[in-house]
Design a protein that fits this description.
A hairpin with a 2-residue loop joins strand 6 (about 125-130) and strand 7. The strands form two sheets. A five-stranded mixed sheet has the order 4-2-3-5-8, with helices on both faces. It has a three-stranded antiparallel sheet with strand order 1-7-6, sandwiched between helices. By secondary structure, the chain is α/β, with parallel strands linked by helices. It is globular. It has five helices and eight strands; from the N terminus they run αβαββαβαβββαβ. It has one domain (about 5-150): YbaK protein.
């Protein structure tokens, strides 16, 4: 089990795991998950870790089909700017490899903002902590477990 799955179990929330065979194609990980699981790219969310200045990192969760508006993200956190974090810093902070970064079970709980579109679904899918494994849960449960807030984040 991954730390993400353990975190969901310990919280006692309702969730499902969905496994698929991860290929070595150039397709972005989230799009691959949606395609292989037969899901809408609006219901599968990618976990982005951003640098918000002052050696601080934060998490954005957006549909895999969407582009993050970094100004909206920075504003939601009261930061002046936001940019994608250094991959090494992401792996050190979260304990996950890129392509398998989950919003749950990270080494250190980072400030988390979830795109408000997540609330339109009865459940959403996020990485379960490794490539080829997705965790399905309600957006509200995700917000509780990550101490996250819902904000419009996409362009």
């Amino acid at each position: 089990m991954t730390p993400a799955v353990n975190a969901a179990k310990q919280a006692g929330i309702s969730f499902s795991l969905h496994e698929y065979e991860h290929g070595s194609t150039a397709m972005p990980f989230g799009l691959e998950a949606a395609e292989k699981l037969g899901l809408s790219t609006k219901q599968v969310f990618k976990t982005l870790v951003l640098d918000i200045g002052g050696n601080s990192l934060a998490v954005a969760l957006i549909p895999v089909s969407a582009m993050l508006n970094t100004r909206h993200f920075a504003r939601a956190l009261g930061a002046k700017r936001a940019q994608m974090a250094d991959p090494g810093a992401v792996e050190r902070s979260t304990g996950y490899v890129l392509g398998g970064v989950s919003p749950l079970g990270q080494k250190k709980l980072l400030p988390t903002i979830i795109d408000e579109s997540a609330k339109t679904f009865s459940s959403i899918y996020v990485s379960a902590g490794r490539r080829g494994l997705e965790l399905e849960l309600s957006a509200d449960d995700l917000a509780v477990l990550t101490c996250g807030n819902f904000v419009q984040l996409c362009k």
